[in-house]
Design goal:
The complex is a heterodimer of chains A (499) and B (112).
Chain A (H helix, E strand, L loop, with lengths): L9 E6 L4 E6 L2 H7 L2 H11 L6 E5 L13 E6 L6 E6 L3 H7 L4 E5 L6 E6 L2 E6 L8 H12 L5 E4 L2 H4 L8 E2 L10 H7 L2 E7 L10 H13 L9 H7 L4 H10 E5 L9 E5 L16 E3 L3 H6 L7 H11 L3 H10 L5 H12 L25 H9 L24 H18 L5 H4 L5 H12 L6 H17 L14 H12 L1
Parallel strand pairs in A: 1-6, 7-11
Antiparallel strand pairs in A: 1-2, 3-4, 3-6, 4-5, 7-8, 9-10, 9-11, 12-13, 13-14
Helix pairs in contact in A: 2-15, 8-9, 11-13, 14-15, 15-17, 15-18, 17-18
Chain B lengths: L2 E3 L9 H11 L9 E6 L4 E7 L4 E5 L2 E5 L31 H5 L5 E3 L1
Antiparallel strand pairs in B: 1-6, 2-3, 3-4, 4-5
Classes of the chains: A alpha+beta (499), B alpha+beta (112).
Chain lengths: 499, 112
Amino acid sequence: MELENIYSGKILLVDLDEGSCDEEELDEDLIGEAIGGAAVNLALYRKHRDRDPVILGCGPLTGTFAPSGCAGVVTGKSPVTGRVCHVPLVLQTAVEMKYSGFDFVVILGASETPVRLWLHDELAEIAGADGLWGRDVWASTDWLRHEHGDDSVQALVIGPAGENGSPLAQLSEGYWGSRDIFGLGALLGAKKLKAVAMRGMGGLEVADGFFQEAVRVQREIRKGDFFQGKGMGPILSALGADGALVDTLSKRAHRSLASHNGAYAPYTFLMIDEAPDVWVESKKDEPGLLLTDPAGVLSLQGLGEAMPAVLRRIQRLGLEPNACGALLRKREIVDPAAAEAAIQELARGIGDLASAGVESVYSTAPWPLTRSEEERLVQAAGVFSHAVPPRPVGGSHADFAAPEDGTGRARWWLERMAACSILGLCPLSALLSPVFSPAEMARWASLAAGWEELDEEKLLGTCRRMISETLELGEPSGSVPDGWLSPDGESFLRELQQG
Amino acid sequence: MELAVDSLRCTGCRVCEYACNYHHDGDCSAIGASLMLHRVEKKNYFGLMVKRERNLLLARPEGEETVAPGEQVEGAGASSKPILMRAPCDRCADEDVPLCVQACPTGCLSMA
């Protein structure tokens, strides 16, 4: 497949052992085989696997006019599960990376001293991070924007939790939490890589006619009932959240935000120290927080009115909120001060799910609500983050033409996540609208890139191969709870691995 | 007719910037757009700036303001300066509807 459209055309190789950066041209044959995103990440992982790589990748639709074309993906070996995993990036970071001139960034080895990476204008620099190491996620993001003189700089950042190697450490997207349930924050901490900052001022070609078709599809998506609302509240309600939680959030809800060209705005900002109906710029520097992760919000709902403030502390420390919530529940902590103290301890690397006796799926905190067969299966597969809800959100399985049986539904979810992670589409959006079918997603990429050979069959074949090859890598640590998998489920996972 | 912004309907998705650049330069980028999202992220304060031929429209969430050339803008940061160096909005003269209006998923942009 030719690359004149869609990709910037460069892979960046970052050698932290040597403190050097190198570039490779993006290979047409590699894209022809793997299309993009997580499948290319996986090929690069296999090539460099003896150096414990972490790969940042974009899909062909990342940063384009495709509906919800916001996404990138981080691939690495989880220090929590022992297996290779793919974590979606869904805010502005992946778009910024692609426009900085790099479609894929391969991070190899480990630095002896704290460093940061700066990507801009097709250039990459490794710089010391002495002034940054020890700062929390918010202060780090502020520091990077000040250092580079631009509030539009985006960054992947770790907080104290990642620096201290906590198994609950999360990779953050700027100030806000990501979908990292696999401890990639601790992996970057072990590499002494505090942040990857990016500013993209480049441009991408898209094939003629793609803009008009993307606008038409976006309007089609917006006709769905779910898209008449906005914010995290309707998502939580659709997932079966307690009405009291939704009420708590609605009392503090400020404006909601969408990702790049998102048809729905899922990210609700909660005002904590400011009135939620004030539209002028707050005089307070940090009046609230952005809700980015429904699993984390659901997991912390037992804290009631104190939840937003505790979640803000979790975000600042760079912790995974779903796991934090599971630990707080196990310890029966509901007092805000006690919760904050417990969280500070977790960020110091003290405590994990297993030693606290918390039920876990390969040492990750389970999806906080329902436990249907398909939900248990996709969590046991462990390839994609179950911080993305493990089921449709904007309708029923039937609305999304998903199979009726558990294993069929699990395959449906995994393939939808795989397609998004390969093409650069928001995985949550693909659960909000049935329009995001593999056939449609393949058609959008084919139109944008001018790749006539990309169709549903090619996309699904790449998805299945990528899932299978991911499962082959790494030995799982931990286990699933007793009774988590039925014999059919165990057989399904074996089939998945065999492709 | 000028480009109008219903600021509170904006969700900060930025596709308008990319659509505008596509009109001006024919590629997917935000760097040459006549409009720009201004966002103070930790305060969730955001709105659009539109460079028009005769003035700069600041579509703030609390209300609109127009700024004539040479006037000082209260609260403008370093990230808002580049808009002044860009081509003004020509309302996509060769289109029935400007591309930003076509692309906006929330209907926050219109011609009025």
